[in-house]
């Protein structure tokens, strides 16, 4: 019978911090996207075309980050191998999207 460690230590605190960071990123990205759309509706500026892609990627990344934190909380509650695989997959997807966003 496998021994399961129940000492979760700092994991809940790190998940809370990660959730706060991703929610702040989501709020800032959505606010910036709203301002960018309002500015381009009034003026026809095409000089900052890359900005729309950066904002869209940051919105998608922050949503994936929130989802990975939710999967981490589900794993923290269940603490089984099947929930661990789902949490790892969402974290890897979020890391990949973060790398795309920061490039």
TrEMBL record:
Transmembrane segments: 14-33, 53-76, 83-101
Domain of life: Eukaryota
Name of a matching Pfam family: AWPM-19
InterPro entries membership: AWPM-19
Membrane keyword on record: yes
Keyword set, alphabetical order: Membrane, Transmembrane, Transmembrane helix
PANTHER family: AWPM-19-LIKE FAMILY PROTEIN, OS02G0731500 PROTEIN
Protein name (Swiss-Prot/TrEMBL): Uncharacterized protein
């Amino acid at each position: 019978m496998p021994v399961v460690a129940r000492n979760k230590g700092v994991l809940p605190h790190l998940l809370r911090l990660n959730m706060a960071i991703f929610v702040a990123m989501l709020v800032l990205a959505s606010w910036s996207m709203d301002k960018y759309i309002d500015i381009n509706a009034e003026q026809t500026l095409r000089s900052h075309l890359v900005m729309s892609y950066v904002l869209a990627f940051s919105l998608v990344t922050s949503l994936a980050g929130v989802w990975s934190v939710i999967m981490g909380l589900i794993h923290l509650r269940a603490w089984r191998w099947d929930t661990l695989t789902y949490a790892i997959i969402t974290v890897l997807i979020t890391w990949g999207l973060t790398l795309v966003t920061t490039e």
